[in-house]
Amino acid sequence: MTKELIQKNIDNTVFIKKDEELGILIDAYKKAVIISIDTETHGEILLNNGLYGAIRVISTSIKDENGEYKTYVIDIRDINKDKLINLFKYVKKAYGWNVNFDSEVLSIYGIEILEWYDSMFADGLLNAGASGFEFYHGLAFAANKYLNYDLTGKGTVQTSYDKETELTNEQIAYAAQDALITLLVSEAIDIKIKESGLEIANDLEQKARPFITNMMKYGVPFNKERWDSEVLSEHIIGKNNALLELAKLTNNNTSDLFNEVIEPDWNPDSDKSTREAFNNYASDAVAAYKIKKYGVDKDDNIKTKLQSSDKLDKGTLKQIKHPLSTALINYREHSKVLSTYGDNLTKYLSNDGRIRSQYRQGGIVATGRLSSESPNAQNFAPEMKKYITPLDRVANSGEVYKRCFVYADLSQAELRVLAEVSNEDRMRNTFSLGGDFHARTAADMFKIDMDDLKNTDPKSYSDNRKKAKSVSFGIPYGLGAPALAQNLTDNSGVLTSADEARKLLKTYSEAYPAVNKWLTDRDNYIKNLAKSAEGIDWEQSIQLYKIYQKAESTRKSLKRKLKRNPSNMEVSVELIDDLTLLGDNDPKDLLKLRNEHVEKIRWALSFDTAVVLNNNGQPWSFESRTLTGRRRLFTIPMDSSTTRGFKGKFEGIITHAMLKLCTSDNKIVADLREQFAEIHNLNLPKGINRFKGMDRNTQWQARLSERSSCIKEFEGVKRELRFEIIKFFIDNYNTTDKSGKKISGTENVYKFLFPLALEEQIKSYANRYRNHPIQSLVADIGLGYYADINSKLEKFDFAYPVQAVHDSIAIECDLKDAEKICTLVKQSLEESFAKWCPNVIAKADADIRLTLSDDDVINVEDIKKYL
């Protein structure tokens, strides 16, 4: 549909504001083959997420059996509520954008749509994993991407609706536009979903939405009063004691007459300050750690100290064998609980004593898993769980019903999926035998009788089991020998060297050869792709980068200024005025030049970020699929991410290329690097062969430190210099090959530097590519049982889901119904798993508990005494 036809449809919108006019829409719904619904709200009702929830307008578009589109806008102010509710019984399925919002506000009014289809989730599936896709697209972005349509106005008009005032033509047109664009975008996305083979994954997402919506609607019941008095007070004491210990261990403190807390005079919340404290007061322990981990010379007074590149995470602190480490770990653990579950938690607690977290589905997490925020319901402190407890329900009759949770999870879901996708018969057989999987894995790995060992040598039994467990859970994520050794030593208490860990990995691969082959094939795909990537248009990729950087920054600035989405024309005019755009051209060409510039803006802003493009102008990409067809895209960002923390700093072609230039041992490159550094006052590595003579571990540490230092040199106001150094080399890096042929700077960068950067970027995706079919299939299995359980819970009054954490769920219900629900939930989990992994025995565990804590599980036989 062209822009003119869209506008014509909006201009011919049917405006309905009387009861007798509803019949027009009933007839339209009866003939419709596809329907979209959107709502406009005002501030009389405020939802838990801070959005307005009182309906003023319902807009809807339909496409009839003849392929004709028609749009309707209903002002509900003067329309009989019962008649309006009856109207929507004619809608069998409605398409929407951000359906959770529209369905909630319609439900508050009493309107229930039989079936919803959220095109925003479908769009998310199409883009899952793509660089820059970190949150749902807005409808305006989708209109630009799929329809080449500039959807403006989101903002001031959207918030202009109230309860009583007559609607303006602008408000009516705005509502009509949203409904029509939602329909047209939905059709375009539907085509893409089918072309991409994502129908099954999309169906799972759509059918799971009501279950996930209910979790957000009901939330978890939390006894904040008991939590504060019994737990937080202990953490306050614990934190203060940890501060006192830190002060004692560093022989210094700050305190005053009015403060009983004695604190160190260095800041334990600052990594820089903490490194200095460790170097000063735990120097021997730090040196021992550096010598053991990196093989540094014990007499090297600099390298035996903590450097800025050394992480101070829990794993590192555990390896620095010193009381200062223990005290700092205690301080951090107490501080985290207090900051996360202290005053911050109060703002999420509703008046009814429930915490309603937000869940995200539909491709936001590339693996298909749910994410949670405000607060994160998937990461409640373990000690908090016993305070997540439902209150008794009091019926209108005065009868009191005891409440409880049915808690269930899939046993070793990822390992069972691994057994399925790898066709590993031995692992499948291990699962079919039941019992302790990790003990049986240890028996397969070490060729020993674990049952006998359990009785004769309990410690060896325990150590072997821990080794098998660590390898089993780590190997799908690409766990290497050093990480395995550290995990076993620090977290499992099994002292393991890197060489011993390598032998463990080899032993595992021999015990499960099909798993080893499957994982090796996944790794080899990435290695081969990294070396042979082709079909890339670097010129166009750079063009996208340059336009996107300026256009996106300007778009955001204008949005804040205008308080609405700016048009591409407005962005274009803000970026370059008419006189500059015209240059030396004929004035009559101004309109043509402006339209061409607007089209460049539209093109750039149809991407989530600037990425590497192929010869067809599309994102260069590769993908991973699950058994359901769910896809994870891997695109290559041109620039590093500012939203992915430390890891994001090392992403992107420009960042990788900059690091290559800054750390190269090529003499010509080193000379040009020094010139660039002098021009821009940068502290970059000088000369070549800087690490000559170092042993392997020391060299690795030194190179890592150098790369981190280079990253820091190009941060903040100097960020743009990362691209400038590449331009500098394009202009100046002119060489000759062995035959004497001249090679330009452009050719050196496009044919040699960028491909090397691309190779590094592709390799960095190895672990994500390796694990995707496992993690994502577990996520899809979860979506399957969400939908099934949601339909089964309809048979029970006051039973609803309240939490989902990866492959586990919690259902709140009356204790009298718990036994039946427990059976149904366990059945749903196992049936959903069996559907996609028919060759591996499914096993789900389900229990009844009075709180979310494992300590409060009750036996079925004891239910009567609680009733």
Characterise the protein shown here:
- It contains 35 helices and 23 strands.
- The protein is an alpha+beta fold and 867 residues long.
- The longest helix has 28 residues, at 766-793.
- 40% of the residues are buried.
- The model has no long low-confidence stretch (mean pLDDT 93).
- It starts with a helix and ends with a helix.
- The protein has six domains: 3-196, Nucleotidyltransferase, domain 5; 224-346, no CATH class; 363-413 and 769-866, Alpha-Beta Plaits (2-Layer Sandwich); 425-511, no CATH class; 538-619, no CATH class; 652-763, no CATH class.
- The strands form nine sheets. It has a five-stranded antiparallel beta sheet. A four-stranded mixed beta sheet has the order 1-4-3-2. Strands 5-6 form a two-stranded parallel sheet.
Characteristic terms for this protein:
867 residues; alpha+beta; Nucleotidyltransferase, domain 5; Alpha-Beta Plaits; 6 domains; five-stranded antiparallel β-sheet; 23 strands; 13% strand; globular
Which SSEs are present, and which pair or pack?
Layout: H1 3-11, E1 14-16, H2 22-31, E2 32-46, E3 52-64, E4 69-75, H3 81-87, E5 94-96, H4 99-109, E6 116-118, H5 119-127, H6 139-147, H7 169-195, H8 199-218, E7 220-221, H9 224-249, E8 254-256, E9 259-263, H10 271-281, H11 283-294, H12 314-319, H13 323-341, H14 343-346, E10 354-355, E11 358-360, E12 371-373, E13 393-394, E14 400-401, E15 403-410, H15 413-422, H16 425-433, H17 437-446, H18 450-456, H19 458-474, H20 481-491, H21 498-511, H22 513-532, H23 538-562, H24 568-575, H25 578-582, H26 590-604, E16 621-625, E17 631-635, H27 645-648, H28 653-663, H29 667-680, H30 696-713, H31 721-732, E18 735-736, E19 742-743, H32 745-763, H33 766-793, E20 800-805, E21 808-814, H34 818-836, E22 844-849, E23 857-858, H35 863-866
